[in-house]
Amino acid sequence: MKILQLIKEEVVPLSRKQNIVLMTIIACIFQFILFYAPALAAESVKTANAQAFGQDTMITNDSLSKDAVMDAEAAKLSPVVSNAASSSTPVASSSKSVASSSELTVVRTSTHTMTAYNSEVGQTDDSPCITANGFNVCKHGIEDTVAANFLPMGTKIKIPDLFGDRVFVVRDRMNKKHPNRVDVWMKDRPSAMKFGIRVAKIQILK
Hints:
Layout: H1 2-11, H2 16-103, E1 106-117, H3 137-140, E2 145-148, E3 156-158, H4 160-163, E4 167-172, E5 182-185, H5 189-195, E6 198-205
Parallel strand pairs: 1-5, 2-4
Antiparallel strand pairs: 1-6, 2-5, 3-4, 3-6
Protein backbone atom coordinates (compact mmCIF):
# COMPACT_ATOMS: atom_id res chain seq x y z
CA MET A 1 0.00 0.00 0.00
CA LYS A 2 2.89 2.38 0.65
CA ILE A 3 4.22 1.69 -2.84
CA LEU A 4 0.83 2.50 -4.35
CA GLN A 5 0.60 5.69 -2.30
CA LEU A 6 4.09 6.70 -3.46
CA ILE A 7 3.22 6.11 -7.10
CA LYS A 8 0.00 8.06 -6.65
CA GLU A 9 1.40 11.12 -4.93
CA GLU A 10 4.95 11.57 -6.20
CA VAL A 11 5.81 9.54 -9.30
CA VAL A 12 2.75 9.70 -11.53
CA PRO A 13 0.02 12.15 -10.54
CA LEU A 14 -3.17 10.60 -11.87
CA SER A 15 -6.83 11.29 -11.85
CA ARG A 16 -9.21 9.31 -9.67
CA LYS A 17 -10.27 7.06 -12.56
CA GLN A 18 -6.72 6.44 -13.72
CA ASN A 19 -5.71 5.76 -10.14
CA ILE A 20 -8.36 3.01 -9.84
CA VAL A 21 -7.24 1.41 -13.11
CA LEU A 22 -3.59 1.52 -12.06
CA MET A 23 -4.35 -0.04 -8.68
CA THR A 24 -6.36 -2.78 -10.35
CA ILE A 25 -3.47 -3.58 -12.73
CA ILE A 26 -0.93 -3.61 -9.90
CA ALA A 27 -3.21 -5.79 -7.77
CA CYS A 28 -3.54 -8.28 -10.64
CA ILE A 29 0.23 -8.38 -11.08
CA PHE A 30 0.80 -9.02 -7.36
CA GLN A 31 -1.93 -11.65 -7.33
CA PHE A 32 -0.28 -13.45 -10.24
CA ILE A 33 3.12 -13.35 -8.57
CA LEU A 34 1.89 -14.35 -5.11
CA PHE A 35 -0.56 -17.07 -6.13
CA TYR A 36 0.35 -18.52 -9.52
CA ALA A 37 4.13 -18.57 -9.03
CA PRO A 38 3.97 -21.10 -6.10
CA ALA A 39 1.55 -23.20 -8.10
CA LEU A 40 3.92 -23.22 -11.05
CA ALA A 41 6.81 -24.08 -8.76
CA ALA A 42 4.84 -26.95 -7.22
CA GLU A 43 3.91 -28.15 -10.68
CA SER A 44 7.55 -28.10 -11.79
CA VAL A 45 8.56 -30.06 -8.68
CA LYS A 46 5.80 -32.57 -9.32
CA THR A 47 6.92 -32.95 -12.93
CA ALA A 48 10.53 -33.49 -11.85
CA ASN A 49 9.46 -36.14 -9.32
CA ALA A 50 7.35 -37.87 -11.93
CA GLN A 51 10.28 -37.95 -14.35
CA ALA A 52 12.59 -39.32 -11.65
CA PHE A 53 9.99 -41.92 -10.65
CA GLY A 54 9.59 -42.88 -14.28
CA GLN A 55 13.32 -43.44 -14.60
CA ASP A 56 13.35 -45.55 -11.45
CA THR A 57 10.41 -47.53 -12.79
CA MET A 58 12.19 -48.08 -16.07
CA ILE A 59 15.30 -49.28 -14.24
CA THR A 60 13.22 -51.59 -12.04
CA ASN A 61 11.33 -52.92 -15.02
CA ASP A 62 14.58 -53.49 -16.88
CA SER A 63 16.05 -55.40 -13.92
CA LEU A 64 12.84 -57.38 -13.49
CA SER A 65 12.74 -58.21 -17.17
CA LYS A 66 16.35 -59.44 -17.03
CA ASP A 67 15.55 -61.53 -13.95
CA ALA A 68 12.46 -62.91 -15.67
CA VAL A 69 14.51 -63.90 -18.70
CA MET A 70 17.09 -65.63 -16.48
CA ASP A 71 14.34 -67.43 -14.55
CA ALA A 72 12.73 -68.54 -17.79
CA GLU A 73 16.02 -69.92 -19.07
CA ALA A 74 16.63 -71.71 -15.78
CA ALA A 75 13.12 -73.14 -15.90
CA LYS A 76 13.80 -74.49 -19.37
CA LEU A 77 16.94 -76.24 -18.16
CA SER A 78 15.69 -77.53 -14.79
CA PRO A 79 13.03 -79.94 -16.14
CA VAL A 80 15.70 -81.59 -18.27
CA VAL A 81 17.94 -82.15 -15.26
CA SER A 82 15.11 -83.28 -12.98
CA ASN A 83 13.68 -85.60 -15.61
CA ALA A 84 17.08 -87.10 -16.22
CA ALA A 85 17.62 -87.67 -12.51
CA SER A 86 14.14 -89.06 -11.94
CA SER A 87 14.32 -91.31 -14.96
CA SER A 88 17.77 -92.68 -14.16
CA THR A 89 17.16 -93.50 -10.50
CA PRO A 90 14.08 -95.74 -10.90
CA VAL A 91 15.69 -97.62 -13.79
CA ALA A 92 18.74 -98.43 -11.70
CA SER A 93 16.74 -99.52 -8.66
CA SER A 94 14.22 -101.53 -10.69
CA SER A 95 16.90 -103.29 -12.69
CA LYS A 96 18.68 -104.19 -9.44
CA SER A 97 15.55 -105.61 -7.86
CA VAL A 98 14.60 -107.55 -10.99
CA ALA A 99 18.08 -109.00 -11.25
CA SER A 100 18.11 -110.13 -7.61
CA SER A 101 14.67 -111.73 -7.80
CA SER A 102 15.31 -113.43 -11.13
CA GLU A 103 18.71 -114.82 -10.14
CA LEU A 104 17.48 -116.43 -6.90
CA THR A 105 15.59 -119.68 -7.14
CA VAL A 106 14.54 -122.16 -4.47
CA VAL A 107 16.75 -125.26 -4.60
CA ARG A 108 15.34 -127.04 -1.56
CA THR A 109 13.26 -126.56 1.58
CA SER A 110 13.57 -127.88 5.11
CA THR A 111 11.99 -127.33 8.52
CA HIS A 112 14.04 -126.13 11.47
CA THR A 113 13.80 -124.71 14.96
CA MET A 114 14.10 -120.93 14.82
CA THR A 115 15.52 -118.63 17.50
CA ALA A 116 16.75 -115.04 17.57
CA TYR A 117 19.74 -113.25 19.06
CA ASN A 118 21.28 -109.77 19.15
CA SER A 119 24.76 -108.36 19.54
CA GLU A 120 25.52 -108.86 23.22
CA VAL A 121 28.61 -110.40 24.76
CA GLY A 122 26.51 -112.89 26.71
CA GLN A 123 24.89 -114.15 23.52
CA THR A 124 27.92 -114.09 21.22
CA ASP A 125 31.58 -113.45 22.19
CA ASP A 126 33.91 -110.57 23.03
CA SER A 127 33.19 -108.84 19.69
CA PRO A 128 29.40 -109.15 19.48
CA CYS A 129 28.99 -107.07 16.30
CA ILE A 130 31.40 -109.23 14.27
CA THR A 131 30.00 -112.48 12.91
CA ALA A 132 31.92 -115.70 12.32
CA ASN A 133 32.83 -114.65 8.77
CA GLY A 134 33.99 -111.16 9.87
CA PHE A 135 30.81 -109.26 8.93
CA ASN A 136 29.84 -106.25 11.10
CA VAL A 137 26.10 -106.58 11.66
CA CYS A 138 25.91 -103.48 13.87
CA LYS A 139 27.38 -101.27 11.17
CA HIS A 140 25.23 -102.98 8.54
CA GLY A 141 22.15 -102.36 10.66
CA ILE A 142 19.79 -104.53 8.60
CA GLU A 143 18.13 -107.63 10.02
CA ASP A 144 19.07 -110.00 7.21
CA THR A 145 21.74 -112.13 8.94
CA VAL A 146 21.28 -115.65 10.27
CA ALA A 147 23.51 -118.12 12.06
CA ALA A 148 23.35 -121.76 10.96
CA ASN A 149 25.84 -124.60 11.29
CA PHE A 150 24.39 -126.84 8.57
CA LEU A 151 24.67 -124.28 5.71
CA PRO A 152 27.78 -122.84 4.04
CA MET A 153 28.70 -119.22 4.72
CA GLY A 154 27.01 -116.85 2.29
CA THR A 155 24.02 -119.12 1.67
CA LYS A 156 20.84 -117.13 1.03
CA ILE A 157 17.56 -118.30 2.51
CA LYS A 158 13.97 -117.19 2.94
CA ILE A 159 11.68 -117.87 5.89
CA PRO A 160 8.33 -117.15 4.19
CA ASP A 161 6.06 -118.18 7.09
CA LEU A 162 7.71 -115.66 9.42
CA PHE A 163 9.34 -112.99 7.24
CA GLY A 164 7.68 -113.21 3.85
CA ASP A 165 10.03 -112.48 0.91
CA ARG A 166 12.91 -111.15 3.00
CA VAL A 167 16.22 -112.74 1.97
CA PHE A 168 18.64 -113.71 4.75
CA VAL A 169 22.34 -114.53 4.43
CA VAL A 170 24.22 -117.08 6.53
CA ARG A 171 27.02 -115.03 8.11
CA ASP A 172 27.36 -116.56 11.57
CA ARG A 173 27.61 -119.85 13.43
CA MET A 174 25.87 -121.22 16.52
CA ASN A 175 27.03 -123.37 19.39
CA LYS A 176 27.88 -126.87 18.22
CA LYS A 177 25.07 -128.29 20.31
CA HIS A 178 22.58 -126.78 17.81
CA PRO A 179 23.54 -128.42 14.52
CA ASN A 180 20.18 -127.87 12.78
CA ARG A 181 18.93 -124.63 14.28
CA VAL A 182 18.61 -121.25 12.54
CA ASP A 183 19.33 -118.17 14.67
CA VAL A 184 18.07 -114.84 13.30
CA TRP A 185 20.05 -111.69 14.19
CA MET A 186 17.96 -108.76 15.47
CA LYS A 187 18.92 -105.24 16.42
CA ASP A 188 17.77 -105.24 20.03
CA ARG A 189 17.24 -107.68 22.90
CA PRO A 190 13.46 -107.11 23.37
CA SER A 191 12.80 -108.08 19.75
CA ALA A 192 14.89 -111.23 20.08
CA MET A 193 13.18 -112.22 23.32
CA LYS A 194 9.75 -111.57 21.83
CA PHE A 195 10.59 -113.82 18.89
CA GLY A 196 11.22 -116.74 21.28
CA ILE A 197 11.51 -120.26 19.85
CA ARG A 198 9.56 -121.25 16.77
CA VAL A 199 9.50 -123.96 14.14
CA ALA A 200 9.33 -122.88 10.50
CA LYS A 201 10.22 -123.93 6.99
CA ILE A 202 13.14 -122.30 5.22
CA GLN A 203 13.80 -122.01 1.49
CA ILE A 204 17.42 -122.36 0.44
CA LEU A 205 18.12 -120.10 -2.54
CA LYS A 206 20.70 -120.18 -5.26
